[in-house]
Amino acid sequence: MTVETPTTGPGLQTGLVDAFGRVATDLRVSLTDRCNLRCTYCMPAEGLDWLPKPELLTDAEIVRLITVAVTRLGVTEVRFTGGEPLMRRGLPGIIEQVAALEPRPKQSVTTNGLGLTKLAGTLKAAGLDRVNVSLDTLDPARFHTLTRRDRHHDVVAGMAAAAEAGLTPVKVNAVLMRGVNDDEAPALLAWCLERGYELRFIEQMPLDAQHGWKREQMVTAEEILRDLSAAFRLTPEGDTARGSAPAERWLVDGGPGRVGVIGTVTRPFCGACDRTRLTADGQIRNCLFAREESDLRSALRAGASDDELADRWRAAMATKKAGAGIDDPTFLQPARPMSAIGG
Ligand code: SAM
Ligand code: SF4
């Protein structure tokens, strides 16, 4: 298969193009694999063997790689994630340096919300545009069961602080689990609409460290939409063509409120994927579900030039597969769990 390099469009000639003509412009950067919650669908109660510090990219190394991505490879959006990205002390400094790049990329953080009450203003001042906060339940006791920590109040307060600081629109990620919180879809949506937050449901994916995911246990996009439709009038936003956005978005009761449902397993959007990922230890992943990674850290630490780093990144993306194939019986879960890849 030959890689066709587009000949028009800004940045595309030297961009991250794969063999199917997809161009990656959205970079997910994992800042740490550590976390202060223990969501049952993500990691075990005792946590994981965290990456040793020398293997983690330094703040300066992260900024260097993001600079290569933005100035040489056409990346226009940078999303910080983890693990829990707010646990990384250097986050405001990283954001500030990325905000100074030309062209300036959009920056957002996907967080569990702990610590946002203190940090929201600082992050906004540093140049952050938006946050995605994860909240799976409105019930503090359920939250405790689901995350193994009694911090519901802190997350809710963190969301309010983000909205107050202007990190808007505040987007909310929710994962529904059968028999745990699968009765909450309409209530979560009503709660988010009241506050002006944009809710997105994410189908549970086989990316947990414990390898406990079961297809038949998963609450599907179809079920979620059925439950929401019983309580709200949903109209597909636009022409329902999703473009590169993973969420199918719906206007709620005529708008302006909306809701998204990310059916990664049952309604994959691989054909329109525009993502590239950098792990906290400096590996490029061309897909959340990839089983191979490309080591940029070694090259970086061996003194590679920006051009060389850009070439390695292009090569890593060129081999991106057509689809993740989660629903395929031959699907094998990647070695790294979601918390170490960066969700
Ligand atoms: N700690 C941050 C948080 O929870 O938002 C960022 C990292 S977390 C891995 C990113 C997102 O992935 C969260 O919204 C979380 O709910 C979601 N997630 C984690 N494990 C998942 C799984 N197995 N299936 C689907 N979503 C998952
Ligand atoms: Fe931590 Fe996010 Fe995983 Fe929950 S989903 S354990 S908050 S990394």
Structure description:
By secondary structure, the protein is an alpha/beta fold. It has a single domain, classed as Aldolase class I (TIM Barrel), CATH 3.20.20.70. 29% of the residues lie in helices and 17% in strands. It contains 10 helices and 14 strands. It has a 12-stranded mixed sheet. Strand 3, helix 1 and strand 4 form a beta-alpha-beta unit. The chain is globular and about 55 Å long. The protein starts with 15 loop residues before the first strand and ends with a helix. The relative contact order is 0.16. The N terminus is likely disordered. It holds the Pfam family Mob_synth_C. Monomer and homodimer. InterPro entries: Aldolase_TIM, Elp3/MiaA/NifB-like_rSAM, MoaA, MoaA-like, MoaA_NifB_PqqE_Fe-S-bd_CS, MoaA_twitch, MoCo_biosynth_MoaA/MoaC, rSAM.
Structural class: alpha/beta
CATH-defined superfamily: Aldolase class I
Shape: globular
Tally of individual domains: 1
- Order of adjacent strands in the largest pleated sheet: 9-10-11-8-7-6-5-4-3-12-13-14
Q: Unreliable stretches, pLDDT < 50, 5 or more residues?
A: 1-12
What would you say the CATH architecture is? Alpha-Beta Barrel
Mind sketching the topology for me?
Elements: E1 16-17, E2 23-24, E3 26-30, H1 59-72, E4 77-81, H2 91-99, E5 106-111, H3 116-126, E6 130-134, H4 140-147, H5 152-165, E7 171-175, H6 185-195, E8 198-202, H7 221-231, E9 234-236, E10 248-252, E11 258-262, E12 275-278, E13 283-285, E14 294-295, H8 297-301, H9 306-318, H10 338-341
The site of iron/sulfur cluster (SF4) has 12 residues, from loops.
